[in-house]
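Friendly challenge for the regulars: who can give me the structure tokens for this chain first? No prize, just bragging rights.
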Amino acid sequence: MLASGLAVYFDFSLILTNMALGLILTNMHTDRNEPNFDIVKAFVPPIYILFFLFVGARLQLGLLPKMGMIGLLYVVGRTAGKWIGAYFGARVSAADKNVQKYLGFALFSQAGVAIGLALDIYQHFSQFGAEGAMLGHTVINVIAATTLLVQIIGPPSVKYAIGKAGEIPLNSNEAANTGESS
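First reply, four minutes later:
Bragging rights claimed.
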């Protein structure tokens, strides 16, 4: 709460401030106090529900047809960025070849930070009058609509990536023969 208060006072991004604080706190201690993380995990789902409820409330379906090319470019750019970043990151870290090839598919549906940043952009652009607010609404709509799309496409692409990487058995008979459970 102190970090959020300081972010508001100094007009910093709330989401980036809290992400930085989380990064620092998580990496301060090597033992990572798991009981504290379990406590946090217990109250996070209602916060997620409220977060996505507020995002959905800002989604204006009337703007969807207008953002066809912008939305398409965003999805293509976002996907390409994740695939290229995952590939080169895995390659630089000398990860297994399967990780290099398929990690991009597994990242397809990750979009929470993008939605948070879109809300942040809306808040800042709204200070510039009606045109700024309209641009902010457009950003939220592009991010929210494409997030809906990738959340539908994402889980099958994650399953594909994990299956192609050989990390899950392809059928239940294979799991039974290896003694693993799904």
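The first helix runs from residue 2 to 9. Residues 80 and 104 are 9 Å apart (CA to CA). Your move, everyone else.
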